[in-house]
Amino acid sequence: VPQEDPIAKLRMLKDEEEVRCIDEAVDVSESCLHQLVEEIEIGMTEKAIASRLDILMLEAGGVPAFDTIVAAGENCFSQHHHPSDRRIKAEDFLLIDFGATTGEYLADISRTFAVGAITSEMQAIHDAARGATEIGTEQLRPGTPIKDVWQTIKDYFDTTDFASHSAVSGHCFGLDVHERPFILEGDPSKLQPGMTTTMEPGIYIQGYGGVRIEDDVLITPDGPRCLTSFPRELMVVG
C-alpha cells in the first residue's frame, strides 16, 4: 500500500510544456494587473476591485484560478482575507493576491500598493518585505534543503524592525494553487530542477496592515528563474 500519493510526487517536477503553460498564465495575470492599477480610484471597495480584476482575467481569455484576495489597510493583516465592502482611502496598503489559469496550469501572484501616497513607515515595511522575497528567491537552487531556504529568510527578517510581524511562506504550484513541497521550517527535502514555487514572505501588523510580494519561480539546473516580472517597487494607486 503506497504511503504517499505517487501522482503528487510526479507533479512536483514540470516539463517544458508545463512551464510554457505556466508562463502563459503568468503573462495573462500580469497584463490584467497592469490594467487594473490604472483603474483603481480612492473610494472603491475591496469587492469592486476584486470583481474588476476577475473580469479583466476573463476578458483576456483566462479564468481566476482561485478566489481573488483584495485587502485594504488593516485587512491586509489577514493572509487569506475575503474582499469586503471596506473602501480604500489615502495611505492604505492595498494587497492583491490573485492568479489566472489559461488552461489547467495557473499563476499565483501578490503585490502590495500604496493608496494615494507613501508614508515613510509604509516604505520601510515594504522595503523589508521586498528584501525577503528577493533574498528568498536567490536561495531557490537545486540541491538546497528547503529548511535552509526558510532559515535564510527568517535570519534576514531578524535583522529588520519587523521580525515579530514576519512570516516565511512559499509553496509549489501547477495544476493546483498549493502543491508539494511547501517552504517550511525544518523540512529536509531538497529543491530540484523543474519545481515551480511561489516565494511570498510577508509582514503582517495587526490593526495596521501588511505587505506581501509574491513571485512565481522556476528552479532550473542553473538556479532560480523568476517567471513574474511585475515591478516589486512600492507603487501608488488611486
Shape estimate: globular
The radius of gyration is: 17 Å
What's the overall average pLDDT, rounded? 97
- The number of distinct helices, counting runs of at least 4 residues, comes to 5
What's the end-to-end separation, in Å? 56 Å
**Could you spell the SSE succession in H and E letters?**
HHHEEEEEHHEEEEEEEEE
The largest sheet is:
4 strands, mixed
Strand order of the largest sheet: 2-3-5-14
Task: Estimate the helix proportion, in percent.
Answer: 25-40%
Low-confidence stretches: none
Helix vs. strand class: alpha+beta
Strand content: 15-25%
Number of strands: 14
Write the layout of secondary structure elements.
Blueprint: H1 6-10, H2 16-39, H3 46-59, E1 63-64, E2 69-72, E3 93-98, E4 100-101, E5 109-115, H4 120-138, H5 146-157, E6 166-167, E7 171-172, E8 179-182, E9 196-199, E10 202-205, E11 209-212, E12 215-220, E13 223-226, E14 236-237
Parallel strand pairs: 5-14
Antiparallel strand pairs: 1-4, 2-3, 3-5, 6-10, 7-8, 9-12, 10-11, 12-13
Question: What does this entry look like structurally?
Answer:
The protein has 238 residues and is of the alpha+beta class. It has helices at residues 6-10, 16-39, 46-59, 120-138, 146-157, and strands spanning 63-64, 69-72, 93-98, 100-101, 109-115, 166-167, 171-172, 179-182, 196-199, 202-205, 209-212, 215-220, 223-226, 236-237. The strands form 5 sheets. It has a 4-stranded mixed β-sheet, with helices on one face. α2 (16-39) packs across α3. The radius of gyration is 17 Å and the shape is globular. 42% of the residues are buried. The mean pLDDT is 97.
